[in-house]
Automatic annotation (TrEMBL):
It comes from Hoeflea ulvae. It comes from the Bacteria. InterPro entries: Glyco_trans_20. CDD domains: GT20_TPS (cd03788). SUPFAM superfamilies: UDP-Glycosyltransferase/glycogen phosphorylase. This is Trehalose-6-phosphate synthase. Belongs to the glycosyltransferase 20 family.
């Protein structure tokens, strides 16, 4: 039986430190099952990259690191990945920065990485590629004769066809995506966009089994909403809260990387509107916004930071008193256990991105609550999480009045209604935690029929994966 091989731009740490959140938690168990391998970028760049993967053996799985030169990395990561694809796929075509060296670096990295991977994978390995930084990988691997099944999961949104076409290389991207055996999306929204893009670009035909026929082969598509370790996060919050005093005022909380897709200025403007129209709450509520820095070297990120800091200062200057600071703003990351407790002790969770693949903060906020006295989640209609969390207060993040209204509804919501909404949200999460996500994707990847090229279904005997979870 083959191994599970995960490939992502960032690799987990080689010593297991910092494993507590995100993708590593999600994939660790599946990887540990049969001696899995995780291939990802080395944390540092070098002028003399190693000509092969650098392997590290961890107790639970192996890690293979690839190295890149600083300029190539910049053009591939800050450039094409985060100055072209990230804004475009988040619908911010106005922020796309097209430079010829970016696209070339993006392809170069995928090509180089494919050569390193081809040296180590076997036909019966199951390859799972993650996210927008590595879209051309299946194409490159197949060109090198790699016969493993290859799945891809897009963690961020896929926009509609017109927006997608704003990317200069949109045809290539569509073709590269069509080289995967299975493509997974966070939402039905994104899945629908992919079907439309394949139809328009590659004359793809939707089959009755949900796959698409493209140029003589089938590409399986599916919706697999990512999640968190629900029980673990609930325990972290409950245990940590035991010795933490409750805040003196009911608190609203927001936790987001300082990214323009997160709708942070719009959120503050909504809060400002709320304060304008609810004088009774002056001095009686506060907003804690934690916004750790990210991709600081990209201009669009510098601009959003300036805008947010200006707004926070403006609101505090306008409404604050000697005893009351309406907005507390923290521009650094806090440890996960501290965040869990802050979520539990906050009356309202504000998750109002302008466009988001999923948004796990929404799920963490719900998991962290005390079921007997839960807080209320205010959630953007454009977060992928909104498809699964209709019992949140759903808002339009572009409409400050809507945000203001939701804040006041949340603060005034009776206990019975808070419990009812939380119960519904929490029980859905319990049935759809991160293990469920991982198992569902792998089960589907294993079951993909590969009748391509020579008309023969390849790679039988991978059934054990279908039992994950
Ligand atoms: O650029 P960074 O810091 O590696 O972050 C990338 C990640 O950012 C996260 O916000 C996205 O949800 C992931 O999909 C993405 O891969």
């Amino acid at each position: 039986m083959g191994r599970l091989v995960i490939i992502s731009n960032r690799a987990p740490s080689v010593d297991g430190s910092g494993d507590s959140g995100g993708l590593v938690v999600a994939l660790k168990d599946a990887l540990a099952k049969d001696g899995g391998l995780w291939i990802g970028g080395a944390p540092k760049q070098t002028d003399a990259p190693s000509p092969s993967l650098i392997f590290h053996h961890r107790q639970d799985f192996d890690i293979g690191l690839f190295e890149l030169e600083p300029k190539l990395y910049r053009d591939y990561y800050l450039g094409y990945s985060n100055s072209v694809l990230w804004p475009a796929l988040h619908g911010r075509v106005d922020l796309i920065d097209v430079q010829p060296c970016y696209a070339a670096a993006y392809r170069e990295v995928a090509g180089r990485l494919a050569r390193l991977i081809a040296e180590t994978v076997r036909d019966d390995d199951l390859i799972w590629v993650h996210d927008y930084q590595l879209i051309p990988l299946a194409h490159e691997l197949k060109a090198l004769g790699v016969k493993s099944r290859i799945g891809f999961f897009l963690h961020i949104p896929l926009p509609d066809l017109q927006t997608f076409k704003a990317i200069p290389d949109w045809r290539d991207l569509a073709r590269w995506l069509a080289d995967y055996d299975l493509i997974g999306f966070q939402t039905r929204r994104d899945l629908g966009h992919m079907i439309n893009i394949f139809r328009h670009t590659l004359r793809g035909e939707l089959r009755s089994n949900g796959n698409m026929g493209i140029a003589g082969r089938e590409v399986a598509l599916g919706c697999f909403p990512i999640s968190i370790n629900v029980d673990g996060f609930r325990r972290l919050a409950a245990e940590g809260a035991v010795n933490t005093p409750a805040p003196s005022l009911p608190r609203l909380i927001g936790v987001d990387r300082l990214d323009y897709s997160k709708g942070l200025p719009q959120r503050l403007v909504g809060y400002q509107k709320f304060l304008e129209s609810h004088a009774a709450f002056h001095g009686k509520v506060s907003l804690l916004q934690i916004a750790p820095p990210t991709r600081d070297d990209v201009d669009a990120y510098k601009a959003i930071r300036t805008e947010l800091e200006h707004l926070a200062g403006h609101i505090n200057g306008r409404f604050g008193t000697v005893d009351w600071t309406p907005v507390q703003y923290i521009h650094r990351a806090l440890p996960r256990d501290e965040l869990a407790v802050l979520f539990r002790l906050s009356r309202v969770g504000l998750v109002t991105p302008l466009f988001d693949g999923m948004n796990l903060v929404a799920k963490e906020y719900v998991a962290a609550q005390d079921a007997a006295d839960p807080g209320v989640l205010v959630l953007s209609q454009f977060a992928g999480a909104a498809e699964e969390m209709p019992e949140a207060l759903i808002v339009n993040p572009h409409d400050p009045q809507d945000i203001a209204q939701a804040i006041s509804t949340a603060l005034e919501m009776p206990l019975g209604e808070r419990i009812e909404r939380h119960d519904a949200l929490y029980s859905h999460l319990q049935d759809h935690d991160v293990d469920h996500w991982c198992a569902a994707f792998l089960k589907r990847l294993v079951s993909v029929e590969r009748l391509d090229v020579d008309g023969v279904a390849r790679f039988p005997g991978l059934e054990p994966w279908a039992q994950v979870g």
